[in-house]
Design goal:
Distance between the termini: 49 Å
CATH topology of the largest domain: FAD/NAD(P)-binding domain
Mean pLDDT: 77
Shape: elongated
Strand order of the largest sheet: 11-18-21-12-13-14
């Protein structure tokens, strides 16, 4: 540390990686922080940390919204929080440029040490139509959007008399049989079937909840006996499990499966994040490791070129240039998710699409 000069640590990303980095630094550097020798800054689009493994429970309402989040300022009281998006990183000048906020202007932050904990971003590559007809399931807002979408689908199905449209409204497809997909389809199934009892014109036999999985058994992360038990339990509760089935894409009317399977009709869009997706609308949440996430402080993705430019800017070959220290932290990718199609890629990394 340089005498009489504050050493600045800047953390990009307000997820588990970024917040726990700040927490650890606050514990290890208590004296230095008290004396003003160290300054910690954290950039995040949100001022709260979301516990993503509990997002499926938000869809069903089995837990409250506030039970899944924690204010970052309360968790890290000695860290300066900047609730902005990141526009650029200048390695030579050791600066990060943050986007303008409400009624404010751009902000440049200087730093001596940089921690990149931007997590991952949902990728729709390889599945045509998912960008237009799927909903992601990665953030708190996605869980609420999915819940509202399911309610809206039931409302429409209750007054719809045309059989094809009615079938689509009551069909929900979740793609991906890993932890995220199974959690999402289980909570979605419970919520939709429970809510449907309040609608006079919807019978339980009309509701179709489908789980697609590319492997021969769901939950490949678990021992075979436990995975088989979970699969039987899902089927007993009304979930249609389709194994060795890949999602090829989606349209406004159907979830498209690989060549030897028929499309599953649907009328909605549903896609999820680190973690789940749902109904004949498709829900796609397939984060790409090492890709900055807009919600975690990264700039919004506007085009493939822009995304590629950011990846180049943060490539390993440039990380070491003129930096005293560069730490990269990332979350493990988790995904999930069809009235909608929900696409989920489990934590095992096994192909689910």
């Amino acid at each position: 540390m340089t005498p009489n000069r504050t050493t600045r640590v800047l953390i990009l990303g307000g997820g588990f990686g970024g917040v726990y980095t700040a927490l650890t630094l606050e514990k290890l550097l208590k004296r230095e922080l008290r004396r003003g020798e160290i300054e910690i800054g954290l950039v995040s689009r949100d001022n709260y940390l979301t516990f993503q493994p509990m997002l499926p429970e938000v869809v069903s309402g089995s837990i409250g919204i506030l039970d899944t989040i924690a204010p970052i300022r309360r968790l890290c009281p000695r860290t300066n929080l900047y609730t902005r998006a990141i526009e650029a990183i200048d390695l030579d000048r050791r600066r990060a440029t943050l986007a303008a906020g409400v009624g404010s202007r751009q902000l440049e932050l200087e730093c001596d040490h940089l921690v990149i904990a931007l997590g991952s971003a949902t990728s729709f590559a390889g599945q045509a139509g998912l960008v237009e007809h799927a909903l992601p399931f990665k953030y708190l807002g996605d869980a609420l959007a999915l819940r509202n979408h399911a309610i809206h689908a039931l409302e429409e199905a209750d007054i719809e008399r045309e059989p094809t449209c009615r079938t689509g409204l009551l069909t929900f497809v979740v793609a991906g049989g890993g932890f995220s997909g199974v959690e999402a389809v289980a909570e979605l199934n419970d919520f939709v079937r429970s809510a449907a009892r309040s609608f006079r014109n919807i019978g339980p036999e009309e509701i179709r909840i489908v789980l697609l999985h590319a492997g021969g058994l769901i939950l490949p992360e678990l021992p075979k006996s436990l995975a088989e038990f979970a699969q039987k339990l899902l089927m007993k509760r009304g979930v249609e499990v389709r194994l060795n089935t890949r999602l090829a894409g989606a349209t406004a009317e159907a979830a498209l499966l690989s060549a030897k399977y028929r499309g599953i009709p649907g009328s909605g869009r549903w896609a999820t994040a680190p973690l789940s997706w749902t109904p004949a609308r498709a829900i796609l949440a397939r984060p790409r490791p090492n890709t900055p996430s807009a919600r975690d402080g990264a700039p919004p993705r506007t085009s493939r070129q822009a995304c590629g430019a950011r990846r180049n800017a943060l490539s390993p070959s440039r990380r070491s240039a003129r930096w005293d220290r560069w730490v990269t932290a990332r979350r493990s990718p988790r995904c999930s998710g069809s009235n909608s199609l929900v696409f989920s890629r489990g934590g095992s990394g096994a192909p689910c699409t």
